[in-house]
Amino acid sequence: MKDNRRLDLILAAGIFALIALPWYRVRSGFFSFDWLTDIISSDNLWPGLVQALTGRLQLWPVIILLGATLYLRVTQPPEQRGKALSWIGALGLVWMSIEGLSIGLRGWNWGQLQTMFGDVAGQPAFGAGAVVIGVVFALLIAFGQAERGALKGDAFVIGAITLLVLLVATFVFYPLASMFIGAFQDFDGSFTSEGVLSNIVDPKIWSLSCLIGGNCGVAWRTFFLAICTATGSTLLGLCFALVATRTGFRFKKSLRLLTVLPIITPPFVVGLALTMMLGRSGMVTHWIEALTGWELGRWLYGLTGIWIAQMLSFTPIAFLVLIGVVEGISPSMEEASQTLRSDRWRTFKKVSLPLMAPGLANAFLIGFIESMADFGNPLVLGGSGGVLSTEIFFAVVGAQNDPSRAAVLATVLLIFTLSAFLLQRFWLSGKNFATVTGKGDGGRHAQLPKRVGWPVTAIVIFWGAFTLCVYTMVLFGGFVKLWGLDHTLTFDHYIRAFGITWDGGMNMVGVAWDSFWTTLKIALIAAPLTAAVGLLTAWLIVRQNFPGRSVFEFALMMSFAIPGTVIGISYIMAFNLPPLQMTGTAVILIACFVFRNMPVGVRGGVAAMAQLDASLDEASLTLGASSARTMRKVILPLMKPAILAALVYSFVRAITSISAVIFLVSSKYNMATAYIVGLVENGEYGVAIAYSSVLIFVMIAVIGSFQLLVGERRIRRQASPQFAHDKEKIV
Amino acid sequence: MSNSFHGAVEFRNVRKEFGKFTAIPALSLDIKPGELVTLLGPSGCGKTTTLRMLAGLESPTAGQILIGGQDVTRLPADRRDVSMVFQSYALFPHMTVVQNVAYGLEAGGMTAKKSHAAAEDALALVGLKGLGQRLPAELSGGQQQRVAVARALVLEPQVLLLDEPLSNLDARLRRHVRTEIRELQQRLGFTAVYVTHDQEEALAVSDRIVVMKDGHVEQIGTPRDLYEAPASEFIADFIGEANVVDAQVISVKDDQAEVDLGGVILSLPARDAKIGPVRVSLRANAMRVRQSTENTSGVAGVIATSAYLGDHVEYEIDGPLGRIFAVDDESDTPLPEGTAVRLDLRLRGIALIPAGAK
């Protein structure tokens, strides 16, 4: 019987983990397999059963629960044991969380427990054995429910849901919770509200005195900046979208290339290039000063500079969202207006623009969230007046070392972005007029009226040229000896970064190789995992009707609005100590990438899945194929383009992101972006720029070969705004 | 497997709720082996939900479903011995026709070679020999439909489920394919459950028809039962758009009732009617429309609208029975509006509707 086979399988895995795998974390890393030689001699490597027998009473419940499962397996038929199995699984998970969280490295984590139960031996973090048992418990819940007939008794579906919930809880909500708790904890772990109170009322965060001429708090500064950036990038994006779709502009096609830029550009590169143009020793600054004799000074460093950099960075994103909106408006609406005695200007004003309004609001909110979450540009251009994301960073890494302050700042930032996200989600949902009906409504989009067309085209040409200059600067800067002082051309920076010597075989002596390969390796591991988790989730959300589905989907999408900096700080706070200790490993980086980029995979998958008729799945099921087989034989082959897109996207994102990564890198696992930021901080602009250009080219190559592989595929008059911004939403 | 239940289907008090909405309050239904039963009803009546519960694509909130005498209520779709022909056909677009048909066999563990041979046989059965290597997109709508049938039949399921299998075909093809399906079913003798909202289709293919409304079974019977003796006004109206009019039962004797219908006295099967007012189902073709101003036999009336439709003329006629819909397939020239007519009633196509039913 199938029901028994799967249960037997996980029971076997559980028992194996209990008697053969180290229960606790192996310091040298589980996959080095060094522990195999020492598992008998070193008591830290003993498996769970031995640990329990040698006095760790907290493991007994685990063993008892597994024993009970074994008993049920032998004595009860599937229909009758289902409920009990689910309970065992749930109890097991709850117990492991409780004992893991309450007993730390040096005994009880909280004083009250010590007074209640007396001393207890400390324990290290969970290791392979514990993790396997945790998964077994989760699957017990799922299989129990399947045997009771929940979700049509489909064990694969319930299992996938349970594991996903467990993973999201562990890697999204547990860190956030740890961060909030961390805000209230002192260094010794005792609770105090002192740090929180002093930070919450700190005028450096909340002061509004800039309205009367002073300096505003960092929260308000960030907020104003985000409003300005969102407004600017939305307007510019609209101009680009209008020119690309409704004018006879000659270079329309190349405008679309612009949309690729933010995907392949590491976030601080724009800021860096701006410095080289407009900074104190910038090229343009020099020209202007030479021509006019004015002293321009440091105007770029601060909110103005960040604002310009962010507009450069995020206009392409707004463009992308708005192309979908502008194209999505049914041409028949505009044609109807024209046949109703309205000229082009009236049609544009009375029909086209109002129809675009929800899309514009959407682009605005996305720009707002992007700006809030941006870390790279403020880091490079912030100078003394930082924004929330950089303040969080300096609160942990700088001389301040004030985790409580970081947590408070992170919470403030989170509240801002989540509010914007909630607005986007609830206020805008259902207000979109631009939809793909699937019915062929023919017709052509009306051209822009002249009085709009000309100024809009002029703006687009100006901004396009500016963007082009900035990127040229990035490429050019890597070949200049010392920016601002000595403009002789040189390959020095490239050699220093990517030098190779040949004495006695190939030696990669360049300083960048190390982080470069680490980055590629981690991105290559993270990408398939991200795609898999994202698409599996998409499939569950679209095709399976389980209780709590909308909550599940909402929680996932919400994790998108969590700024990278907040993720970084929360991961440190959660995974630095038992029960889950991962800082300094590659696992934490991979987990961070997977759960940060997963929502994109989910959205892409949902969009792709929506185009597959649900009856295809059902046909497969009624033909006797299991859910897993259906997934493999029907869904996956049909989703190939979406899978490839998700793969490429998560690969590229893993390479370019910085905000969360910078908290999580270690000397062993350093990532390219974090390394470049280090170079910038040391003033090695040349090498930093050279390294950045190499990254950009690597990513162009990756995306280019992906495009060749999949080919340009356009589905109907697709671009519903939702879909358009699915693929390229970037934080 | 060849017990006497093989192919039998039973619903025992099945209830289905979607959130707060109760789609099916309590459904009990028996389908005999080798029978083609149609679930018929307007959209939203629960017929598709019923079919999907039988397939295992929805699980009932309460009650039991039995296939071949075995309780399958908790069994997932892939482990039920049924297969289904979908409204959209749901052919896998990335597989060839043969791969589509062999898909279910391979899922059951058959080798690729064997399953492909079986698939070719099934394709021959539905008249698609030699088209196996094409992709579904390269076939016409009718051919795709037959692939879908072959794909389901090749598994030799106890029960074949058909969810509006003809709705994506044009009218002419529909008539042809439904005959084919019926013929195949009678030749191979499998049980089939067929969902449709088209009463003509249901009448044409079914052994028995289950008419559903708001999740209830309104009436179960052979096509003739339903047409000639509708159990309720809803059935009378839904099957063949009958006029439902008021009449008076004058006397009842030996299961025959004397009925006053707009002044004409008829003798009809009583169907438990009592003396007094009664509702009568009056088919549109159960009367002959005759131009006449005289007060002779038949029911008087005046033509309100008339429409010429080639082989017949449709009238709406005002008279003592209210406005009546009538079809005249005998005369070529339509009578103009305002013409005074007499309606001569024929006994075929007139039935009392049992009291108590709506």
Automatic annotation (TrEMBL), chain A:
Keywords: Cell membrane, Membrane, Transmembrane, Transmembrane helix, Transport. It is found in: Cell membrane. The chain crosses the membrane at residues 7-25, 45-72, 84-105, 125-143, 155-177, 223-245, 257-279, 299-330, 351-373, 379-399, 406-427, 458-482, 494-513, 519-542, 554-573, 579-595, 642-665, 685-710. The keyword Membrane applies. One of its GO terms (cellular component) is plasma membrane. Its main location: membrane. One of its GO terms (biological process) is transmembrane transport. Pfam families: BPD_transp_1. PROSITE patterns: ABC_TM1. It is a multi-pass membrane protein. Residues 219-424, 516-706 form the ABC transmembrane type-1 domain. PANTHER family: FERRIC TRANSPORT SYSTEM PERMEASE PROTEIN FBPB 1-RELATED (PTHR30183:SF7), MOLYBDENUM TRANSPORT SYSTEM PERMEASE PROTEIN MODB (PTHR30183). Belongs to the binding-protein-dependent transport system permease family. This is Iron(III) transport system permease protein.
UniProtKB/TrEMBL annotation, chain B:
GO terms for cellular component: ATP-binding cassette (ABC) transporter complex. Residues 9-239 form the ABC transporter domain. Keywords: ATP-binding, Nucleotide-binding, Transport. GO terms for molecular function: ATP binding; ATP hydrolysis activity; transmembrane transporter activity. The keyword Ion transport does not apply. The keyword Transport applies. It holds the Pfam family TOBE_2. GO terms for biological process: quaternary ammonium group transport. This is Iron(III) transport system ATP-binding protein. It comes from Pacificibacter maritimus.
